[in-house]
Each structure stands twice: as C-alpha cells, then as structure tokens.
Write a structure and sequence with these properties.
Layout: H1 2-19, H2 23-30, H3 34-48, H4 50-80
Length: about 80
Amino acid sequence: MHTELEERSRALGRWILENNATVRAAASHFGVSKSTVHKDVTERLEQYDRLLCRQVRQVLDINKAERHLRGGDATRKKYKGE
C-alpha cells in the first residue's frame, strides 16, 4: 500500500513540475480528486522526496498567485463566445 502511495505521489509531483500544471489539471490527468493530489504532493511527497516536494510547492504557489488571472480570462472568453 505504501509503495503505491509513494509511486503515485512521485508521479504526480513529476508531472506537475514538468507541465507547470495546476492541482485541477493533475487530478484530471491522473483520474483522482483534487484533494488526493493536494495531499499527495504536499504531505506524502515530503516524506519520500523533499527536493521534489519543494519544487512542486513552488509551482503550486505560482499557480495560486495567478489563479485570479486565469479565472478572469475564462470569464472573458465565456462572454465573448470563444
């Protein structure tokens, strides 16, 4: 069980890092919930690979800082009919 969690945590972390992806995008790609992704890359990954965890945390912090901009873009596209 633990090796399965470790493998998933590492895979999620690597994918987020390689794609500069959001938690939502990672959840969709791997077919798990956003809560699972968040728990895997913030709590579990720290136990298995601290360096990867820090790198993923940087990507997630950037995404969090920019999310209000992405939301505005999505709304603009919705009402422009794009």
